[in-house]
Amino acid sequence: MGAASISEYVALLNEEQQRHIHAFLAFMNTEYPKLTNKISFSMPMWLLWLLGKKMKDGYVAISAAKNHFSIHFSDEAFVERLAENLPACKKGKRCINIKYGDDALFSAVKESIRDFLNSYHVERNSAL
To answer: CB–CB of 61/44 below 8 Å?
Structure first.
């Protein structure tokens, strides 16, 4: 059985994985405090859709693997464009894989996340 909460999910990870997942959680919670996060499909996920729509209508999620972490998007076309613009990223199904320790690539992906969420009219933290 998987984790029931984000804190449980993080507690199951090793130190390297925790560091990167915490960095992403801090980014999302600081920049997009109005987004709801929860465990879905065994990973932390931020839901972008309005009541009555389906998950395919908008999400961002993160998961940890042995040698990388993945940032998942609901929009496959967005992932394709991101992979073209960031050739150092490996692409998975609706996700971008970032090797642990590649902080420059992680920063570039965070900028892309801002673009992705902006396309959904998600409000950023106005204090930033």
So the answer is: yes
